[in-house]
Amino acid sequence: MNAYGWRSIFKFTLVQQVKTKSFIISSILISVLILAMVILINVLPGLLAPAPGTVEDTPLAGQTKTVYFADASGITASSDYQKLFEDAGLTFIGSDGSDKAEEYTNTVRNGSNSVFVLLTYDENTGYSIKSMRPLDGSVSPDDANVIASTASSAFSELRLEKLGLSEDKIPSAIAPVTIVNTIAGEEEMTFAQQMINSVLPMITSLILFIMIVLYGQLIAQSVAMEKTSKVIDTLLISTRPLAIIIGKILAIGALSLMQFIGFILVGVIGFAATLPLGLGLTSQALAGVDGVGEFTEAFGKLFSQISPLTIIMILVIFILGFLFYALIAGLIGATVSHSEDVNSAMQPFAIFSVIGFYLAYFPSFTEDGSQGMLKTLSYYLPLSSPFSLPSGMLTGQLDILQTLIGVLILAAFNVIIALFVARVYEQLILHTGNRIKIGELFGLAKK
Amino acid sequence: MALTVKNISKKYGNVQALSDLSFEMSRPGVYALLGTNGAGKSTAIRIILGMLSKDTGEVLWDGKPMDPIRGKIGYLAEERGLYPKYRITDQLMYFGELRGMKKADAAKAMDYWFDRMGLDQYREKRADQLSKGNQQKVQLAAALISDPELLVLDEPLSGLDPVNADLFKSIIYEQTAKNKYIIMSCHQMPVIEEFCSDLTIIHHGHTVLQGDLNEIKKGYGRVNLEVKCDGDILPLAAECGLTAQEVTPDGVHFKIKDEQQASALLKKAVDAGLTVVRFDLREPSLHEIFVEHITRADAAAKEVL
To answer: What is the average per-residue pLDDT within A20-37?
Structure first.
């Protein structure tokens, strides 16, 4: 098998593809989208967050001006809430029991800018806080909810105090209880880590999946175009079919890599450039938001664990995975004799790549870190391993030996596919007439 | 140097596309590979050029197995092919580099052929922006860019207007003068007669005629008679035992058994006082030889069945 000339094919294909309008337009459009996205990521939290201090100072901000309060809890009295609402700048009208509930209801219903809060107790259902707003829409459901939530928070503390708990013990009494479920002997996973473990496999799989679908189609079209435009006859006196497909696949693979690196650079540079602007808007707002620190810490921990070997392995897996699918795409492109048949011929390719992607992605998502059979299979099946191995390494679910086994199986299948392609491609590339079926390909390989 | 094709055969499934084709080009010139559509010419060319594997036989260049990739070979395929959306200069440079040329040499050769073929004004154009004739010129330039020693031209003049056909012919003459080896496949028999000294006619994969064209023609003798005169020649021809093969405004065509029949007809015409405008006694044309051999081969095949 002679691959003489593949470098010229690689260079020509790469240069010509870079010059195409579709490549230029898609690169610019996606770069602009990425830039817009990272700017939004930086700026949006700051724009959406309330100004510093406003959360505490004006919890009842909105169009509400008067609060009617009927306390039928039997524990607290309406007067317990008066200061809270009046400090927020609202007029407070309260009563104990539910006698005035109907009156308050009618007043609020027919009035404007007022909310009626009814606090009741039922032996079966417990305590209930109901907020009612005017018919004219002057108070939004969200504003009414804020009033009810404020009353609810106050009630949680007040009832403990009324039942005899000292003020210093109240925070302990109302602190939330978190349930953690782990495998015995293993470190507990925070919510952020769980989220990263679910999202990271999806992102890494998705990147490769997009590369395979977009550029696989490009490879098939490029091979089919050379065949249908009869350029192949001119090429074949200078080089062998194997060199043509190798040069083409490597060129389009390099193109995809260049484009993705370009997108990542645009993202990183855009993020870094707009970070000062974002920080100015968000620093104070983020300071009090729970979870952001947890995510930052989890990401920091994850990235500090990535060794150069892991990065090299991931790159190798990406290249092998891309080659695996690219060889199949090139083979499919060579089976058609008319360019309009490429899309229909590529349908099995799309199905296989989707199966591979979902096989890698769904077990990760549903099994929450546990090593299920389907997930294990996805690491060693060449159809899915390019999608699952990188995330398995990144999330620490695979050790280096397991990864190596997966990579070796994938590499072995690449060699088998390459030998198969080399065997049938020469016969396919000069074939004209009906599209060659998959079964016929095996027949050609036997010859 | 010499091109030797020895007993090459190719089978597609149960169909024998080519059977024991052999010929030799021991000197530079134009060798014709002729045949009806589907006769096996393209299969033979693709095997000679190493594009297709052969079941049997060998192809030798200068006594050694042909290595088309490293050898100095040019090919103008029957079905023209260029990348429709790429600039023609990029394509020619690419084809030159694929033939192992250095970039500077390829650029120089491209400039020469663009100038020679009047393509200079289209340098920046894409292939799909050119007329069919100009695309064909680019294709010929691609075949010639590496200054090949062996040039294979499959239907080089099909679809060309008379001006461009003359341009192509002049280039073929130039290549012949430079002692290049040219294999030409063409359905235009006058073109073959104009250029070729030797030929092979293939039919259903089998060789039905092979040899030096002049010798083949001599073997037939001068059996065609074209007569044009200002009176009715047909009654006089009948007296000589001749029946007209074809009557056109430009004259009458007879098949004669020997040259004495022609002399007898001429004497009768002169004696009858007819003015003879043209009296042309000639060998059969390649077209006639071709049709005769194909018809004969078909008849023989029917007999076997």
So the answer is: 88
